[in-house]
Amino acid sequence: MRDTRESRLLLVLLIAIAFALITVDIRGGEDSPVDGARQAAATVFGPIEDGVSSAVDPVGNAVSAIRDSGERHDRIAQLEKENAALKAKLGSDDRNRSRLKQLDKMLKVAGQGQYGIKGAEVIAIGAAQGFSWTITIDAGANDGIERDMTVLNGDGLVGRVTTVGPSTATVLLASDPDFTVGTRMEGNDELGFAAGQGDGPLRVELLNGKAKVKKGDRLVTFGSQADKPFVPGVPVGVVSRVDPSAGDLTRTLYVTPYVSFTKLDIVGVVVQAPKKDPRDTVLPAKPKPTPTPTVTVTVTPSGQVGDGQFTQEEQ
């Protein structure tokens, strides 16, 4: 269209009509007379707008991907950091798994003996209250711990409580030279008293000087009056040496304790004694004997000694 006077007048007229329609639409609000036309236009042009938007979206997504790539790299770095921390945690969890195993073993012992126990962690070891072989545990009066309570773990007798604070307690170990506990031998019920000897075996004096005892025999606690300081049936140790009987009133034994006193971590304080003596039920199962080789010599009919034949026989 050429730029003529008529065309300019037509343009001005169209602009005036557009402004008039806008004014009418604004004043009409929701009841605007042009609302129907606007909806019709949306019906016609809406799908076209959606198609254009779909065509443009991949480009927008690509731009977003470029914009977010830095965040993704940061997330990957964070994940790698978390994985490294997890590996480090798994490494340190070896100790936690060991402690869980100790706890399970101790609970099994408590169940077999029907001991009511309060679990505790060893937080210190060394001289305390004038004793040389002691540990400090993280349980005290607030946890129901009292003086002269038996302390055990999954292996056997650990010691007895000597001093109690609000949240901690001191335990005298069975290895201490000032420690003494009444014992009873498995099977023959011979009674005695075991005393600590530091890092050596326990020294046991049997009340019967003529008692028949041998290496490998096992002992448990005899128990005390009112179950303090010792409850009955707690495994003490295995006889490792027997002194020759010299006609004395007592007989001396040396007993290897079940508990390793230098490796204590999780222990249990017996806060409730069993209703009846568990006797020997808490002792671990005896190891099976190992077959030993023997030599059998056969003689041939001609009187010659044949080759030795080796057989496996249980002694």
From TrEMBL:
Q: State one Pfam family annotation.
A: MreC
> Which region ranges are annotated with the description Disordered?
277-315
Record carries keyword Transferase: no
The domain of life for this entry's organism is: Bacteria
Task: Return the InterPro entries for the record.
Answer: Cell/Rod_1, Cell/Rod_MreC_2, MreC, MreC_beta-barrel_core
**Keyword Cell membrane assigned:** no
Q: Where is the Rod shape-determining protein MreC beta-barrel core domain?
A: 130-270
- Give the keywords, sorted: Cell shape
Q: Which family does it belong to?
A: Belongs to the MreC family.
Q: What does this protein do?
A: Involved in formation and maintenance of cell shape.
User: What is this protein's name?
Assistant: Cell shape-determining protein MreC
Recorded source organism is: Streptomyces fuscus
